[in-house]
Write a structure and sequence with these properties.
Blueprint (H helix, E strand, L loop, with lengths): L2 H11 L7 E7 L3 E3 H9 L4 E9 L12 H11 L6 E3 L9 E5 L2 E3 L2 E3 L2 H8 L5 E4 L4 E2 L11 E5 L6 E3 L4 H5 L5 E7 L9 E7 L6 H12 L2 H10 L11 E3 L4 H24 E10 L8 E5 L3 E2 L6 E9 L5 E7 L6 E5 L5 E3 L11 E8 L2 E7 L7 E5 L5 E6 L8 E9 L2 E8 L6 E7 L7 E2 L6 E2 L11 E3 L2 E7 L9 E9 L4 E11 L8 E3 L4 E10 L3 H10 L1
Parallel strand pairs: 1-3, 1-8, 3-5, 7-9, 8-10, 11-14, 16-34
Antiparallel strand pairs: 2-4, 6-7, 10-12, 12-13, 15-17, 15-36, 18-19, 19-20, 20-21, 22-23, 23-24, 24-25, 26-27, 27-28, 28-29, 28-30, 31-32, 32-33, 33-34, 35-36
């Protein structure tokens, strides 16, 4: 995703910050990492870097034979696109002041000289962003209105210390975390201003870290907004404090990764997920907690359809689903009527494109469909004709630069809200836009991405009301795609904030899934899958990727 486009979207919708914040940047070399540069770029509309604290005596870490294989791993697997060095000079103004200094050290702590502290404290600084130095002693001695913000890659509830993502991958954790913390003069006691959980690529350390650093850059915006509103995230910092892994631990780590790669390769060569759709009981607020669903009736698959998934109930009781043929991987859309009738949804605009997630919208007495069509192009909404054709495609204005995953529309509080993932980050982040009309123009929510958690971010069906409360189903993709559904109660949905709280998980006894939930007045429908051996699975996957 283009950072410039995201930045422009944020600039047009930011209603909270009215003036740029006088900012001090802490660095320890002429460069910063690419992900740090991206964080600054995404916030260039609200940060005015007027002072730079440049520590010139970065402490070299002692290398030992005990960690030899870790340094080898770092060389070949950890360094990635987002850890590459880039100059920080372009992010400061012509009149910005640079204060070079040598830090005083005592044990593991580093101190900024008093002279330099005085220079910053006299500069009327609003906020300090720390992208350099190690353990900074007494950061609150820096007089900044909103404190000193520092990134930490790891979920502090479970994994503190270093290296980022290593032990999470080794121990097969659900996710890898990242926080932006407002530093205090007591270690790990500062307020967490932003927190995110991100999906782990279990067969690749490099890809896991690339995704972690790439997505964590968004947290700076969230942290700044929370500083301004005096909000924080209630996350404890009580997890185990890890250190660099020994040579033996690295060998265990590499062996584990290789085993996962072999299993993944064999599955891709010879197995497919056989998705099916079935009816089940309706989830209500009374079912908070873990809910084991029972399939009441499996929907028969039409002739020539290998799998059915993504069920959505329309106002007339029919089902819209994604289907796929026996000899293809690309999805198409199917309507299953109350009678045994089954019809493919045709569209002259979307021929040969992968289609899924046929989200129905009732507008003016007519059914419209908002399909996932990211492979085809920008998002459109289509009218569903009586002949089961998708016609009169209308572009959703304001979203032309995005490829949306699982777009979900709801009218709430006299506003149209669109929830969707974006290609490349759809498994663990959810974005939100709003408009006065169902076709736009849409504006991005200032807290985007509003959800940063692979256990619930990706859309799993329409938002719904139970006992007067609003709920959102989200996919649990922590360990694999379609691993289950998390139901979250929407606590706040407005132009300034979005908050939700998970209240239930949905699973199916003896089956894998579900990953889409849709309810009518009588029944709910879910999809589920089984792993099916198919000798030509590898061929279909290659064919699908080649188009």
């Amino acid at each position: 995703m283009d950072a410039n486009k995201i930045q422009a979207s944020m600039e047009t919708t930011n209603r909270f910050v009215r003036a740029k914040l006088r900012t001090c940047l802490i660095v320890d070399s002429d460069t910063i990492s690419a992900w740090q540069a991206r964080a600054l770029q995404l916030n260039s509309d609200i940060l005015d870097i007027v002072e730079v604290l440049y520590c010139t005596n970065l402490r070299s870490r002692k290398k030992s034979l005990r960690y030899f294989w870790y340094y080898v791993l770092n060389l070949f697997a950890i360094r990635n696109t987002w850890t590459k060095s880039t100059p920080w000079g372009p992010f400061i103004g012509l009149n910005s002041k640079i204060h070079q200094f040598e830090a005083r050290t005592k044990g593991v702590w580093e101190y900024i000289p008093q002279q330099n502290l005085d220079q910053i404290n006299n500069a009327n600084i609003d906020i300090v962003v720390k992208f350099g130095m190690g353990l900074l002693r007494d950061p609150q001695n820096l007089s900044a209105r909103y404190g000193v913000l520092s990134f930490h890659h790891g979920d502090p509830r479970s994994y503190r210390g270093r290296p980022s993502g290593f032990y999470e991958l080794l121990e097969n954790a659900q996710h890898v975390g990242a926080v932006v913390q407002e530093l205090s003069n007591t270690l790990d006691s500062g307020k967490i201003r932003a927190f995110g959980s991100y999906q782990i690529t279990r067969h690749s350390y490099r890809k896991s870290l690339e995704h972690l650093y790439h997505q964590s850059a968004y947290l700076l915006r969230i942290a700044i907004e929370n500083c301004l509103s005096e909000s924080y995230v209630d996350v404890s910092c009580t997890g185990k404090n890890y250190s660099l892994p020994s040579n033996l631990t690295v060998i265990r780590f590499v062996t584990s990764i290789l085993r996962r790669r072999v299993r993944r390769t064999l599955y891709g060569l010879f197995f497919r997920k056989l998705w099916s759709v079935g009816s089940t009981t309706i989830w209500t607020e009374d079912n908070r907690g873990k809910s084991e669903l029972e399939i009441i009736q499996i929907i028969p698959k039409p002739k020539g359809v290998f799998f059915l998934a993504d069920p959505f109930v329309t106002e007339n009781g029919s089902l819209l689903c994604e289907g796929s043929g026996n000899r293809q991987e690309r999805g198409f859309l199917v309507r299953i009527g109350r009678s045994p009738s089954v019809n493919l949804l045709h569209s002259n605009e979307l021929n040969d494109a992968h289609l899924s997630y046929p989200f129905p919208v009732l507008l003016g007495g007519h059914t419209y469909v908002l399909p996932e069509m990211a492979e085809h192009g920008p998002q459109k909404i289509f009218k569903l004709s009586d002949a089961d054709e998708l016609i009169d495609g209308q572009l959703l204005l304001g979203l032309e630069d995005f490829r949306l995953i699982d777009p979900t529309l709801i009218y709430h509080s006299e506003t149209w809200w669109l929830f969707a993932g974006i290609v490349g980050s759809e498994q663990d982040t959810l974005n939100l836009w709003f408009s006065q009309q169902p076709t736009g123009p849409f504006s991005a929510h200032k807290m985007n991405p509003v959800v940063r958690d692979p256990s619930k971010a990706r859309g799993a069906g329409a938002l719904f009301v139970s006992n007067g409360k609003l709920f959102r189903p989200g996919q649990n993709n922590c360990f694999s795609y379609g691993n289950g559904i998390t139901i979250s109660e929407v606590l706040q949905l407005d132009h300034d904030d979005y908050r939700e709280e998970p209240v239930s998980t949905l699973s199916i006894d003896g089956l894998k899934g579900p990953h889409t939930y849709s309810a009518s007045s009588d029944f709910a429908y879910v999809d589920f899958y089984q792993d099916k051996f198919y000798a030509l699975a590898w061929y279909l996957r290659i064919k699908s990727r080649l188009g």
